[in-house]
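call fold(seq) -> tokens
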Amino acid sequence: MAFKVVKPEKTDIQNEFYGIITEVGLSRRSKGNKEILVRGYSPTVLLDGRPTCQSYCEKTLGDIVSDLHQQIPQNDLKVNIDPIFTGEIPFIVQYKESNFHFLNRIADKYGEWCFYDGKELNFGRFDKSNKIDLPVEKRLSEFEFSLRIQNLNFNAIFYDYLENTAYKKETKDYQVNDLDSYGDHALSQSEKVFKQTHAYYSHENFEDEKAFTDHFETKKIANTKDLIFNEGASDNPYINVGTVINITDEVAGEEDYGEFIIISLNHSIDITGKYVNRFTAIPAEASIPPVNRNISQPVSEIQPAVVIDNNDPEKLGRVKVRFFWQAEKDSTPWLRIIHAHGGTTGSGEQHGFYFIPEIDDEVMVGFENDNPDKAFVIGNLYHKKSPPDHWYHAENNIKAIRTRNGNQIIFVDEDGKEEIRILNKDDSSPTNEISLSLSNNGKITIKSEGELEISAESIKISADNDITVDAGKTTKFSANDYKLNANNGLELTGQQLKIEGSNTSMKGSAQLKMEGEQTDIRATMLKVEGSGQAELKGAAVSVNGSATTEIKGGLVRIN
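ret:
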């Protein structure tokens, strides 16, 4: 559908508006007159469908606008894409909003022009060379030129967790350089009258301090763009949204009011065929448009997602997730996780929990300031294909911690059978296990299918009753000095008993007795001595020296 408005005196000039018919009706009025009613919109209605969700990661504004344009028949809507901001956006979400609303929202955020001029949708810079003169009273039947003051003082705070720094920006620190003399006057008066400064924590997401600073400066400039505005009515049919008009006062001979950009326009033709338009315009010096007060920020509710990566390059314990509405190729950036305890002390010592979800885990995700661009992980969720039935107990007597490869801590709260188990792998036959049980007045069990190693500066083992050491094969004790002490008796038994040392001493303070079916005492040199009396006695005693046998004493008696 195309409308053409042509003035009789200028048949070579025409204004065209291309749109799409969305409704056709039949109307019958008094006297039997019948009318066909046609209703339609600009082709931007193709972008203004049902709310949807999608995300963009590391894309420019041009990339995003092009992608949105490709989602509709491109021949039905021409688009001029020339954004002022050409940087790469780390992550941005279109959440439960139409493509058209999302397009206008990102334009407002980055200070970009976004409007349909009757022929094409302009995003970013647009052609201002086509200017139209509108003389007061000759072409302007109504004209109102207004200056207003308003509170433009505000402070914004943004916290960057990668730098652990809260940045604060104040409007008084930034100058606005694209105002005319009227605009400068309105701004200075606004700052004089409204002295109170309003502080707020920014709900937007920023990559770093520079991105925050650029956004803050853009917002200050945008808020000054409606300090000066004019409204009027004209019979010139050749103006459109985005047209630059030059308002002159030829009748009164006064100076021109200046050049303005049309930001709102309404065309009408009455029953007699008389044409008139009503417009709102701002000074043409404006480098960015005024704040779009028709834009609402999306509100994102907590929702589940699936972990797709947990190898955080910054080693902050973050994960990437994919929401169920995201495409297979898409995901979030690295998201922080809520922990019950965590941080670093003033001296640099770390403390807290460190449990990171595994890939393919389902997690619940929340959003700072309800902003879909600022997600964080609240915690894990079980589902039917990944239930905690291994520890389920009808009376909720079991609590547990288990890692991916089966390392477990199990807490049993059954009355009289309380227990803490630390184990590896299979519960019924673990490779290693430590059990602290309160059954039968308490019992601690340490088991391993491999080696059990205890190492310390000093080790003390004490028992009120017995200590039993049992080995299937060999028991070895090794030390620089080894002492066995028994208050009552010390007993060493075995099929063979061997005591060996470079110097071996056996002493009984009262009596030392060695006894056996056969006792052999052998040495290169053997000395048996009794300081009082020495007695060698047997049913048969043989003393034999293979070379020489010498028996000596003060008095020697043989039989």
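The two ends are 149 Å apart (CA to CA).
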